[in-house]
Amino acid sequence: MTDALVNVENLRIGFAGEGGSLVEAVKGVSFRLGREKLGIVGESGSGKSLSSRALMGVLPAHARVEADAMSFAGIDLLAAPPRLRRQLRGNRMGMILQDPKFSLNPVMTVGKQIAEAIRLGDRSLPRAAVRRKVLEVLEAVHIRSPERVHDLYPHELSGGMGQRVMIAMMVVREPELLIADEPTSALDVTVQAQVLDIMDEQVKRRGMGLIFISHDLNLVSRFCDRVLVMYAGRIAETLDARRMDEAQHPYTQGLLACLPAIDGPLTPLPTLERAASWEEARP
User: Fold this and answer.
1) What is the DSSP string of 170-225?
2) What average pLDDT score do residues 258-281 get?
3) Which helix (H) or strand (E) covers residue 8, if one does?
4) Which of 47, 53, 48, 55 is CA-nearest to residue 75?
5) Which residues contact 130 (CB under 8 A, 6 or more apart)?
6) How far is CA 63 from the centre of its chain?
7) pLDDT at site 186
8) 159-171 and 189-206 helices cross at what angle (nearest 10)?
9) What are the b/e assignments for 43-73, b being 16+ CB within 10 Å?
């Protein structure tokens, strides 16, 4: 992929353990991302969110982040000063978190929070122009009554509407990279499909690169272009999302075998038999 938007090579993330020892949570992750939808799946603790937060530059100060290379749009993120990283976040890189109840400010209306994101990029915009832009982006994420929602507080929103507002806040600045960390896990199937359609529409229309983090293999295989399967801080394998059935790694094969099917046998689902070799570095 010669025109990669994101390039990560041998990313390692560690935290101090007992006695000053270093505990590695991410152990040599490498991937590239173009103007596409890249899914990252794996169990909790496999390093999915840590890897994406390292890319965004929002890990805590006590985390040790090392890599042979980590770049975004040709910018060396390892050498970039903090001020440049802050400028990239929200402007050219956006992140949608898992639960809007914990991500939105409970004492600010929806309109004010989106307006704040707009003004971070251009403080000279008049108030009327900002309000018009807020209403436009709310309408773009299929909120039927943008005028009404504009004046609501987060606790007055449903789960699906809250996620739409989060998407609106991230795309209003038209970022080149969007990271969505479990954005649909708390939604019912119907609302989940609507949110995914909105994200797909925004990615295609704006030409963004998307990293979609999830536990749901079926969802990722339908929505994404490629899939990274992570296990114990490493990438087990990379697959074309439409060819998940061709998985070679026993971990991915085990995850697929554990998925229930409506027309499947009425026998207990198989358990995942793990091997110590899965945690070893691949050649």
Assistant:
1) HHTT--SEEEEESTTTTS-HHHHHHHHHHHHHHHHHHT-EEEEEES-HHHHHHH-S
2) 79
3) strand 6-16
4) 55
5) 115, 118, 119
6) 20
7) 67
8) 10
9) eeebbbbbbbbbbbbebeeebebebeebbbe
pLDDT 10s digits, 203-256: 888 889 999 999 888 889 999 999 999 999 999 999 999 999 899 999 999 888
pTM for this prediction: 0.88
Q: Per-residue confidence at 146, pLDDT binned at 50, 70, 90?
A: very high
What is the band of 281 on the pLDDT scale with cuts at 50, 70, 90? low
Phi and psi angles of residue 208, each rounded to the nearest 5 degrees, phi first: -85, 165
Structure tokens at 61: 């100060």
Cβ neighbours of 175 (radius 10 Å): 21
Element (H, E) at 32: strand 22-33
Query: Which domains does the chain possess?
Result: 37-46+88-279 (3.40.50.300)
- Proportion of the chain above pLDDT 90, given as a percent: 54
Taking Cα atoms as reference points, which of 91, 242, 234, 238 lies closest to residue 169? 91
Q: Residues 199, 52, 39, CA angle at the centre, nearest 5°?
A: 50
Contact (Cβ atoms closer than 8 angstroms) between residue 47 and residue 30:
no
CA distance linking residue 222 with residue 100, whole number of Å: 24
Contact 47, 233 (CB under 8 A): yes
Say whether pLDDT at 31 is over 50. Answer: yes
Task: Please report how many Cα atoms fall inside a 13 Å half-sphere around the Cα of residue 42, on the Cβ side.
Answer: 23
Mean confidence (pLDDT) of the chain: 89
Q: How far apart are CA 163 and CA 141, in angstroms?
A: 10
Pairing of β 209-214 and β 37-41: parallel
pLDDT of 132 reads: 94
Q: H/E element holding 256?
A: helix 250-257
